[in-house]
Amino acid sequence: MEQTTNALEVMTQPIQPEEIEWRVQMQTKTGKLIVVPYLTNRTVMERFDRQFGWQNWQNEITEIQGGFLCKITVTVPATDATPAVQLAKMDGASRTDIEPVKGGISDAMKRCAVQFGLGRSLYNYPKIMIDTPDKFIPDWANQQLDVLVKKINDGSYRGGDMVVLKVSYQKA
User: Fold this and answer.
1) What share of residues in the chain are helix, strand, coil (percent, to 5)?
2) Is the pLDDT of residue 78 over 90?
3) What's the pLDDT at 76?
4) Residue 86 contacts by C-beta under 8 Å, 6 or more apart in sequence?
5) Domain extents for the chain?
6) pLDDT tens by residue, 31-57
7) What is the pLDDT of residues 112-125, one digit of tens each?
8) Where are the beta strands (DSSP E) in 2-149?
9) Residue 151 binned pLDDT confidence (cut-offs 50, 70, 90)
């Protein structure tokens, strides 16, 4: 496992399509799905492992009324110019509707990881609507979402504050 010396180099790299999952936030009265990107807890752990090495970071979960706090402590390795240093960040989340304990713990950890720079760019994504009568994200839309993420990452996305995905945009 390769480790970098820049404290946030791996953490702040663009989020790749395979690191994102999409969740339906709501369905409009006109039948469009509004979807939002999110990181999985596995992505958080993999990025921290790549950045600091599995042995140089840890998380601590504390249950609070209605939710959880997550504290992540990392050891930034020494360089020729600086000694090793420990840094810690903390954030919390409420229990979730589905799997309240597991979901709340995962959400707290993901929110804490954002403080290290991981996934911050997701907050700048355009509003994404999918033109479908379905209640779930259709396969054709997942392909378009992957393309959108790649365009955002490489700087070629030239759309506005809102994106509407349609089955007719699917490439044959």
Assistant:
1) 35, 30, 35
2) no
3) 87
4) 73, 74, 75, 76
5) 20-39+119-172, 40-118
6) 899 999 999 999 999 999 999 999 999
7) 999 999 999 999 99
8) 20-27, 32-39, 57-64, 67-76, 85-94, 127-131
9) very high
* Distance from C-alpha of 144 to C-alpha of 24, rounded to nearest angstrom: 15
Give the bridge partners for 85, in sequence order: 76
**Angle, CA of 75, 81 and 83, to the nearest 5°:** 30
The C-alpha atoms of residue 52 and residue 50 are separated, in whole angstroms, by 6
d(CA 165, CA 33): 10
Sheet of 57-64: strands edge to edge?
A: 57-64, 67-76, 85-94
Level-2 CATH architecture, domain 40-118: 2-Layer Sandwich (3.30)
Q: Where are the beta strands (DSSP E) in 28-171?
A: 32-39, 57-64, 67-76, 85-94, 127-131, 162-165
Crossing angle of helices 41-52 and 100-114, rounded to 10° = 40
